[in-house]
Amino acid sequence: MLIEILKHTPIWVYALFAFLVYRGWSARQPKKMPSWVVFLIPAIILGVNLLSLNATILNPLSLTTLILSLVPVFYLTFTTIPKIQWQADKKTIYHPGDKILLFVILSIFSFKYFTGYQLATDPEFASSPLHLVFKGGFFGFSVGFALGRIVAFMRRLKHTRPVKKPQMKI
Prior knowledge:
Elements: H1 2-7, H2 11-26, E1 31-34, H3 40-51, H4 54-58, H5 60-79, E2 85-86, E3 92-95, H6 101-121, H7 129-158
Antiparallel strand pairs: 1-3, 2-3
Helix pairs in contact: 2-6, 3-7, 5-7
């Protein structure tokens, strides 16, 4: 069965998977970058989820699990982001690396892949209570992560002073 699933998966899904693994793995390394780059992945995650959120909001079961997962994930993400530092030019930042991003990216990919497969093979699955709870909870997780990152990075960049030489931990 697994072989059949993989055979019928479009090539672009494998390319997307490879890119996401590369992006998540490279995010683990410390680096200097333009300040807007720290918002890129959370903004993409937020956009993808908001585009497919319409059916979830209409169902009370999904909405409840969405809120119950969004609030704690937002709080955890907001309080545990990496310590970024402005560079002296005030245009670039030093980002010490992020170990959790690979896990989050692969979780979102896996969820989208699984639900896409389930909906293609069993369309009635979309209206099952299990799917509604799972979908609402996962949207809460990913939207909470993205919003927590965006708000925390905005706050941290606003209250951080420039440094001439970043403190690198390798």
